[in-house]
Protein backbone atom coordinates (compact mmCIF):
# COMPACT_ATOMS: atom_id res chain seq x y z
CA UNK A 1 0.00 0.00 0.00
CA UNK A 2 2.87 2.36 0.77
CA UNK A 3 4.35 1.63 -2.62
CA UNK A 4 1.01 2.31 -4.29
CA UNK A 5 0.55 5.70 -2.59
CA UNK A 6 4.17 6.86 -2.56
CA UNK A 7 4.28 10.34 -4.22
CA UNK A 8 7.95 9.84 -5.23
CA UNK A 9 7.25 6.63 -7.09
CA UNK A 10 7.84 6.75 -10.84
CA UNK A 11 4.79 4.54 -11.44
CA UNK A 12 1.71 4.75 -9.24
CA UNK A 13 0.87 1.07 -9.38
CA UNK A 14 1.98 -2.34 -8.17
CA UNK A 15 1.32 -5.65 -9.89
CA UNK A 16 -1.73 -7.57 -8.61
CA UNK A 17 0.53 -10.58 -8.21
CA UNK A 18 2.81 -8.72 -5.81
CA UNK A 19 -0.23 -7.67 -3.78
CA UNK A 20 -1.54 -11.26 -3.66
CA UNK A 21 1.82 -12.56 -2.53
CA UNK A 22 1.93 -10.01 0.30
CA UNK A 23 -1.57 -11.10 1.39
CA UNK A 24 -0.71 -14.84 1.37
CA UNK A 25 2.42 -14.13 3.41
CA UNK A 26 0.93 -11.74 5.97
CA UNK A 27 -2.28 -13.69 6.46
CA UNK A 28 -0.13 -16.80 7.15
CA UNK A 29 -1.86 -18.56 4.24
CA UNK A 30 -5.38 -17.84 5.53
CA UNK A 31 -5.96 -16.44 2.01
CA UNK A 32 -4.44 -18.30 -0.94
CA UNK A 33 -3.98 -18.03 -4.70
CA UNK A 34 -5.47 -21.42 -5.32
CA UNK A 35 -8.62 -21.16 -3.22
CA UNK A 36 -11.45 -18.63 -3.44
CA UNK A 37 -11.96 -16.75 -0.18
CA UNK A 38 -14.91 -14.79 1.14
CA UNK A 39 -14.53 -11.02 0.52
CA UNK A 40 -15.93 -10.09 3.95
CA UNK A 41 -13.35 -12.28 5.71
CA UNK A 42 -10.66 -10.75 3.55
CA UNK A 43 -11.88 -7.18 4.07
CA UNK A 44 -12.02 -7.60 7.88
CA UNK A 45 -8.55 -9.11 7.93
CA UNK A 46 -7.14 -6.51 5.50
CA UNK A 47 -8.48 -3.47 7.37
CA UNK A 48 -7.31 -4.84 10.73
CA UNK A 49 -3.90 -5.83 9.34
CA UNK A 50 -3.38 -2.35 7.84
CA UNK A 51 -4.59 -0.73 11.07
CA UNK A 52 -2.08 -2.74 13.12
CA UNK A 53 0.75 -2.10 10.63
CA UNK A 54 0.13 1.63 11.09
CA UNK A 55 0.54 1.18 14.89
CA UNK A 56 -3.20 1.64 15.34
CA UNK A 57 -4.83 0.99 18.71
CA UNK A 58 -8.44 1.03 19.93
CA UNK A 59 -8.75 4.82 19.70
CA UNK A 60 -10.86 6.10 16.82
CA UNK A 61 -8.16 8.42 15.39
CA UNK A 62 -5.20 6.08 15.81
CA UNK A 63 -4.87 5.22 12.10
CA UNK A 64 -6.19 6.32 8.71
CA UNK A 65 -8.21 3.06 8.68
CA UNK A 66 -10.10 3.92 11.86
CA UNK A 67 -10.47 7.58 10.85
CA UNK A 68 -12.06 6.46 7.56
CA UNK A 69 -14.16 3.43 8.47
CA UNK A 70 -14.78 3.25 12.21
CA UNK A 71 -18.29 4.02 13.42
CA UNK A 72 -19.98 3.42 16.76
CA UNK A 73 -23.19 1.85 17.91
CA UNK A 74 -24.94 0.97 21.15
CA UNK A 75 -26.24 -2.59 21.35
CA UNK A 76 -29.16 -3.22 23.72
CA UNK A 77 -29.50 -6.86 24.73
CA UNK A 78 -32.18 -8.51 26.83
CA UNK A 79 -32.54 -12.17 27.64
CA UNK A 80 -35.95 -13.74 27.03
CA UNK A 81 -37.37 -16.61 29.10
CA UNK A 82 -37.88 -20.04 27.61
CA UNK A 83 -41.21 -20.62 25.84
CA UNK A 84 -41.69 -23.81 27.88
CA UNK A 85 -42.38 -21.81 31.05
CA UNK A 86 -45.85 -20.68 32.12
CA UNK A 87 -46.77 -16.97 32.36
CA UNK A 88 -46.19 -16.75 36.11
CA UNK A 89 -42.67 -18.21 35.84
CA UNK A 90 -41.88 -15.90 32.92
CA UNK A 91 -43.11 -12.89 34.88
CA UNK A 92 -40.97 -13.68 37.92
CA UNK A 93 -37.91 -14.30 35.73
CA UNK A 94 -38.39 -10.98 33.90
CA UNK A 95 -38.16 -9.20 37.26
CA UNK A 96 -34.67 -10.61 37.97
CA UNK A 97 -31.48 -8.63 37.11
CA UNK A 98 -30.39 -11.30 34.64
CA UNK A 99 -33.35 -10.47 32.37
CA UNK A 100 -32.91 -6.67 32.34
CA UNK A 101 -31.79 -4.88 29.19
CA UNK A 102 -28.03 -4.24 29.00
CA UNK A 103 -26.47 -1.55 26.80
CA UNK A 104 -22.94 -1.96 25.40
CA UNK A 105 -20.95 0.47 23.30
CA UNK A 106 -19.58 -1.23 20.21
CA UNK A 107 -17.29 0.15 17.49
CA UNK A 108 -17.79 -1.20 13.96
CA UNK A 109 -15.82 -1.25 10.69
CA UNK A 110 -18.85 -2.45 8.73
CA UNK A 111 -22.59 -2.95 9.28
CA UNK A 112 -24.08 -6.41 8.75
CA UNK A 113 -27.45 -6.21 6.96
CA UNK A 114 -29.74 -9.25 7.20
CA UNK A 115 -31.81 -10.22 4.18
CA UNK A 116 -35.39 -11.45 4.71
CA UNK A 117 -35.64 -15.20 4.03
CA UNK A 118 -36.47 -15.87 0.35
CA UNK A 119 -40.04 -17.08 -0.32
CA UNK A 120 -40.44 -20.82 -0.83
CA UNK A 121 -43.27 -20.72 -3.36
CA UNK A 122 -42.86 -20.95 -7.13
CA UNK A 123 -45.07 -19.08 -9.63
CA UNK A 124 -47.34 -20.70 -12.22
CA UNK A 125 -44.58 -20.86 -14.84
CA UNK A 126 -42.59 -23.11 -12.48
CA UNK A 127 -39.97 -20.43 -12.11
CA UNK A 128 -38.51 -19.13 -8.91
CA UNK A 129 -39.48 -15.58 -8.21
CA UNK A 130 -36.44 -13.54 -7.31
CA UNK A 131 -37.48 -11.52 -4.29
CA UNK A 132 -36.50 -7.86 -3.91
CA UNK A 133 -35.97 -5.72 -0.85
CA UNK A 134 -35.25 -2.04 -0.35
CA UNK A 135 -31.93 -1.04 1.22
CA UNK A 136 -33.77 1.25 3.67
CA UNK A 137 -35.73 -1.77 4.87
CA UNK A 138 -32.47 -3.56 5.72
CA UNK A 139 -31.10 -0.48 7.49
CA UNK A 140 -34.07 -0.24 9.90
CA UNK A 141 -32.14 -2.87 11.92
CA UNK A 142 -29.95 0.03 13.11
CA UNK A 143 -32.66 2.51 14.13
CA UNK A 144 -32.45 1.60 17.83
CA UNK A 145 -36.12 0.49 17.81
CA UNK A 146 -36.29 -2.74 15.78
CA UNK A 147 -35.59 -5.81 17.86
CA UNK A 148 -34.12 -8.98 16.42
CA UNK A 149 -33.99 -12.39 18.08
CA UNK A 150 -30.67 -14.19 18.49
CA UNK A 151 -30.49 -17.80 19.62
CA UNK A 152 -27.65 -19.68 21.21
CA UNK A 153 -28.04 -23.40 21.90
CA UNK A 154 -29.50 -22.76 25.36
CA UNK A 155 -30.55 -19.11 25.55
CA UNK A 156 -32.53 -16.56 23.52
CA UNK A 157 -31.83 -12.84 23.33
CA UNK A 158 -33.49 -9.81 21.81
CA UNK A 159 -31.13 -7.16 20.47
CA UNK A 160 -31.54 -3.58 19.29
CA UNK A 161 -28.83 -1.65 17.45
CA UNK A 162 -28.50 2.12 17.61
CA UNK A 163 -25.90 3.96 15.53
CA UNK A 164 -24.19 6.66 17.61
CA UNK A 165 -21.50 7.79 15.19
CA UNK A 166 -21.30 7.50 11.39
CA UNK A 167 -17.88 7.12 9.73
CA UNK A 168 -16.69 9.11 6.64
CA UNK A 169 -16.83 5.84 4.67
CA UNK A 170 -19.52 3.34 5.52
CA UNK A 171 -19.18 -0.33 4.60
CA UNK A 172 -22.35 -2.41 4.35
CA UNK A 173 -22.09 -6.20 4.35
CA UNK A 174 -25.25 -7.83 2.98
CA UNK A 175 -25.33 -11.29 4.52
CA UNK A 176 -26.19 -13.64 1.65
CA UNK A 177 -24.72 -16.91 2.86
CA UNK A 178 -25.83 -19.15 5.70
CA UNK A 179 -23.59 -22.04 6.60
CA UNK A 180 -25.30 -25.15 7.90
CA UNK A 181 -23.54 -28.27 9.12
CA UNK A 182 -23.64 -29.80 5.65
CA UNK A 183 -23.78 -27.05 3.07
CA UNK A 184 -23.81 -23.34 2.33
CA UNK A 185 -27.04 -21.66 1.22
CA UNK A 186 -27.25 -18.41 -0.71
CA UNK A 187 -30.06 -15.89 -0.46
CA UNK A 188 -30.60 -14.50 -4.00
CA UNK A 189 -32.71 -11.48 -2.92
CA UNK A 190 -31.98 -8.37 -4.97
CA UNK A 191 -31.40 -5.27 -2.86
CA UNK A 192 -32.75 -2.07 -4.41
CA UNK A 193 -30.38 0.74 -3.50
CA UNK A 194 -29.79 4.26 -4.83
CA UNK A 195 -26.30 5.00 -6.16
CA UNK A 196 -26.57 8.53 -4.73
CA UNK A 197 -28.29 10.21 -1.78
CA UNK A 198 -28.63 7.46 0.80
CA UNK A 199 -29.74 9.41 3.85
CA UNK A 200 -29.06 7.87 7.25
CA UNK A 201 -30.86 10.61 9.19
CA UNK A 202 -34.02 8.54 9.57
CA UNK A 203 -32.12 5.77 11.41
CA UNK A 204 -30.54 8.11 13.97
CA UNK A 205 -32.04 9.41 17.19
CA UNK A 206 -32.59 13.22 17.25
CA UNK A 207 -29.61 13.79 19.57
CA UNK A 208 -27.25 11.65 17.46
CA UNK A 209 -28.55 13.39 14.35
CA UNK A 210 -27.76 16.78 15.87
CA UNK A 211 -24.12 15.72 16.28
CA UNK A 212 -23.78 14.95 12.56
CA UNK A 213 -23.47 17.87 10.14
CA UNK A 214 -24.30 15.60 7.26
CA UNK A 215 -25.85 12.14 6.95
CA UNK A 216 -26.06 11.69 3.15
CA UNK A 217 -23.90 9.04 1.49
CA UNK A 218 -23.06 8.17 -2.12
CA UNK A 219 -22.00 4.72 -3.34
CA UNK A 220 -18.33 4.44 -4.35
CA UNK A 221 -17.87 0.64 -4.58
CA UNK A 222 -20.08 -2.42 -4.91
CA UNK A 223 -18.95 -6.05 -4.65
CA UNK A 224 -21.23 -8.63 -6.26
CA UNK A 225 -21.45 -12.41 -6.02
CA UNK A 226 -22.80 -14.31 -9.05
CA UNK A 227 -23.68 -17.97 -9.25
CA UNK A 228 -23.72 -20.90 -6.83
CA UNK A 229 -22.82 -20.37 -3.15
CA UNK A 230 -19.77 -22.65 -3.15
CA UNK A 231 -18.44 -21.88 -6.60
CA UNK A 232 -19.63 -18.62 -8.13
CA UNK A 233 -17.57 -15.57 -9.01
CA UNK A 234 -17.08 -12.10 -7.63
CA UNK A 235 -16.88 -8.79 -9.44
CA UNK A 236 -16.60 -5.21 -8.24
CA UNK A 237 -18.05 -1.91 -9.43
CA UNK A 238 -15.94 1.09 -8.66
CA UNK A 239 -16.45 4.81 -9.20
CA UNK A 240 -13.65 6.89 -10.65
CA UNK A 241 -14.39 10.11 -8.82
CA UNK A 242 -12.54 12.53 -11.07
CA UNK A 243 -14.61 11.56 -14.14
CA UNK A 244 -17.77 10.23 -12.45
CA UNK A 245 -17.45 7.07 -14.57
CA UNK A 246 -18.28 3.63 -13.11
CA UNK A 247 -16.16 0.59 -13.98
CA UNK A 248 -16.78 -3.11 -13.54
CA UNK A 249 -13.76 -5.25 -12.71
CA UNK A 250 -13.42 -8.98 -12.62
CA UNK A 251 -9.90 -10.26 -12.09
CA UNK A 252 -7.96 -8.39 -14.79
CA UNK A 253 -10.96 -7.46 -16.96
CA UNK A 254 -12.12 -3.87 -16.71
CA UNK A 255 -15.14 -2.46 -18.56
CA UNK A 256 -17.18 0.69 -18.10
CA UNK A 257 -20.71 0.28 -16.83
CA UNK A 258 -23.81 2.45 -16.43
CA UNK A 259 -24.76 3.19 -12.81
CA UNK A 260 -28.31 1.92 -13.41
CA UNK A 261 -26.91 -1.54 -14.27
CA UNK A 262 -25.20 -1.75 -10.87
CA UNK A 263 -28.48 -1.72 -8.98
CA UNK A 264 -29.67 -4.93 -10.69
CA UNK A 265 -26.88 -7.05 -9.23
CA UNK A 266 -26.69 -9.32 -6.19
CA UNK A 267 -24.78 -6.83 -4.06
CA UNK A 268 -22.66 -8.39 -1.31
CA UNK A 269 -20.47 -5.61 0.09
CA UNK A 270 -20.90 -1.89 -0.52
CA UNK A 271 -18.82 1.15 0.36
CA UNK A 272 -20.56 4.51 0.73
CA UNK A 273 -18.84 7.86 1.12
CA UNK A 274 -20.24 10.66 3.28
CA UNK A 275 -20.87 13.85 1.34
CA UNK A 276 -18.68 16.65 2.58
UniProtKB/TrEMBL annotation:
Record field: catalytic activity: Thiol-dependent hydrolysis of ester, thioester, amide, peptide and isopeptide bonds formed by the C-terminal Gly of ubiquitin (a 76-residue protein attached to proteins as an intracellular targeting signal)
UniProt xrefs under PROSITE patterns: USP_3 (PS50235)
Source taxon at top rank: Eukaryota
A single GO BP: protein deubiquitination
EC number annotated for this UniProt entry: 3.4.19.12
Gene Ontology molecular function: cysteine-type deubiquitinase activity
Domain USP: 1-275
InterPro entries: Papain-like_cys_pep_sf, Peptidase_C19_UCH, Ub_carboxyl-term_hydrolase, USP
Pfam family, one: UCH
Protein name stated in the entry: ubiquitinyl hydrolase 1
